[in-house]
Amino acid sequence: MVKTSTTQTSSGTSIPRAGTAADEPHEPTLTSRNRALWLSGAAVVIGVALRALTVSELWLDEALSVNIAALPLSDLRGALMRDGSPPLYYFLLHFWIELFGTGDVAVRSLSTVFSVATLPLMWLVARRHAGRPLAVAALLLLATSPFAIRYGSEARMYSLVSLLALLGYLAVDAALERPSSRRLAAITILSAALALTHYWSLYLLALAGILLALKAARGGGRP
After folding, report:
1. C-alpha dihedral over 168, 170, 173, 177, to 10 degrees?
2. pLDDT tens digits along 181-190
3. Which pTM does this prediction carry?
4. Dihedral angle sign, alpha carbons of residues 83, 66, 191, 131
5. Quick one: angle between helices 60-69 and 104-130, nearest 10?
6. Residue 168 CA to chain centroid, in angstroms?
7. Which residues pair with 17 in a beta bridge?
């Protein structure tokens, strides 16, 4: 479609003038937003691949986790009492081993599943409170973080802690927005799961409780 404009003559009449191609707005075939989405997607795929394709042998703590989780359920409690670790991850790994075996890739893949599931949760948390650009940045940071990649490819409980922490944050945020017995029950279950995954989670739970108590004392709205 060709645009037309008018030109005033010396007598005051208007004469239509055909527009040129340069007057038309040019829409690029690949916008900067599309490029950012493609690059973000590629970074996430690479991060997931690095989590899933670790080929090194199990190190000491990983081997200990597998040895304990491979025991019969009746023996797990006694082994964990000697080891001093909470039971949730070991119980989950026990059933994972029954399904996929005790190969290095198989036992590590449970942590990979937890770590990959954490990625959309990170995007959702950041999107709710900081908007789409920072949500993309948070997703890229977690997808390519060397620490997240390492713990997402290790037969230990740390990627499960990250997953539960983000789920707990979303549960608390939803309960603050619109309290209900179901949402409060979700917070209780996730808090218990965190405490049963790693004892250091108790510090996180204590801090969250203190912040919520301060919020209640001030009578404020959403954080």
Report:
1. -130
2. 999 999 999 9
3. 0.79
4. positive
5. 100
6. 12
7. 5
